[in-house]
């Protein structure tokens, strides 16, 4: 085999195994997506950094990159399921509810657990001192969110039944208003809403997620996007990991990026970033799939989702179809 033929074959084979990044315009690569619509929340630090730096627009110059903000994961995944997004970030519970409802989506990546980044809050003068004191109380949280699972686990640890509380399903901004005016007894919430409330009104933390919930974060994509543009998905995950490395080495600049985008105070941003461990994005490990299955099983056992779900069934397995096509092209 000549040097040039050998080099061409080696290049295509490396691409087939995912060793090369996405390069718009390369003849051996699939076309870039025409549009990449990304759903994110204020807590999505890696995505916010990418947005503020324009990193994806540089990696995908032939694609229209759009950024759509959501107040919580359930709303984001509903948009993903109806074809309004290609990819987005949520906590642990929204994908379970979406899968149980038959939504067509795939887990494509995950960040490490962040158990200190969510909490059950009570007012400073509240008589509630332990999780057992939630019995007979009104507890606010976003239905189908990571806070929902935190409450499930908190009640179980306290030896309480789901029927022992009155759940008040509210999105974060409405829940905070209800919490401040005393319409609810407790509020389960995640950062940065948690950090902002902590600084503004000094609530007491009845419990955070430590020992209860890992507060895991997942990247989910539409099935069509994973099938048609697997290399683009991988580039997105690689860029998210690069963004996290930037956050770890440039805390001051990252906090300013996030504050400028979100309108949150710098003090709030620094507080919620301080609770966030290094968060590179990796494929779901078997241990993380098992952990997520426990989330699904807990909701199913309480009758909060209509049927059992098998999390592993919607975990993206990258590479196989796309790699096979590229390998065939090299023959």
Number of strands: 10
Number of domain units: 2
**Overall pLDDT:** 88
- How is the biggest beta sheet arranged? 5 strands, mixed
Strand content: 15-25%
Level of helix content?
A: 40-55%
Order of helices and strands: HEHHEHEHEEEHEHEHEEHHHHHH
What's the shape?
globular
Subcellular location: Periplasm
Keywords: Signal, Transport
Function: Part of a binding-protein-dependent transport system for aliphatic sulfonates. Putative binding protein.
Domain Solute-binding protein family 3/N-terminal: 35-254
Show the helix and strand layout.
Blueprint: H1 3-16, E1 35-40, H2 45-53, H3 55-59, E2 64-69, H4 73-81, E3 87-90, H5 93-100, E4 105-111, E5 118-122, E6 138-141, H6 146-157, E7 166-169, H7 172-181, E8 186-190, H8 193-201, E9 204-208, E10 217-222, H9 223-228, H10 230-249, H11 251-262, H12 266-274, H13 286-301, H14 320-329
Parallel strand pairs: 1-2, 1-3, 6-7, 6-8
Antiparallel strand pairs: 3-10, 4-10, 5-8, 5-9
């Amino acid at each position: 085999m000549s040097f040039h033929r050998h080099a061409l074959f080696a290049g295509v084979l490396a691409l087939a195994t995912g060793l090369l990044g996405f390069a718009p315009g390369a003849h051996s690569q699939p076309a870039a997506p025409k549009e990449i619509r990304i759903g994110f929340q204020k807590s999505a630090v890696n995505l916010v950094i990418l947005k503020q730096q324009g990193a994806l627009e540089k990696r995908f110059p032939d694609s229209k990159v759009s950024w759509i903000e959501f107040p919580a994961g359930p709303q984001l995944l509903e948009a993903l399921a109806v074809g309004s997004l290609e990819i987005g970030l949520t906590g642990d519970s929204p994908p379970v509810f979406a899968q149980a409802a038959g939504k067509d989506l795939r887990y494509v990546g995950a960040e490490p657990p962040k158990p200190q980044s969510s909490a059950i809050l009570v007012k400073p003068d509240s008589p509630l001192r332990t999780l057992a004191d939630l019995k007979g109380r009104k507890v606010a949280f976003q239905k189908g969110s990571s806070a929902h699972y935190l409450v499930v686990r908190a009640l179980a640890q306290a030896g309480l039944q789901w029927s022992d509380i009155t759940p008040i399903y509210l999105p974060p901004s409405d829940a905070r208003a209800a919490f401040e005016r005393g319409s609810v007894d407790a509020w389960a919430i995640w950062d940065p809403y948690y950090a902002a409330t902590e600084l503004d009104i000094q609530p007491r933390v009845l419990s955070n997620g430590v020992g209860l919930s890992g507060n895991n974060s997942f990247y989910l994509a539409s099935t069509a996007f994973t099938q048609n543009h697997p290399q683009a998905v991988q580039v997105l995950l690689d860029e998210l990991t690069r963004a996290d490395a930037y956050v770890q080495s440039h805390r001051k600049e990252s906090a300013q990026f996030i504050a400028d985008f979100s309108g949150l105070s710098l003090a709030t941003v620094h507080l919620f970033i301080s609770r966030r461990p290094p968060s590179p994005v990796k494929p779901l490990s078997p241990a993380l799939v098992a952990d997520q299955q426990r989330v699904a099983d807990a909701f199913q056992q309480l009758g909060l989702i209509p049927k059992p779900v098998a999390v592993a069934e919607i975990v993206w397995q990258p590479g196989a179809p796309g790699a096979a096509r590229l390998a065939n092209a090299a023959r």
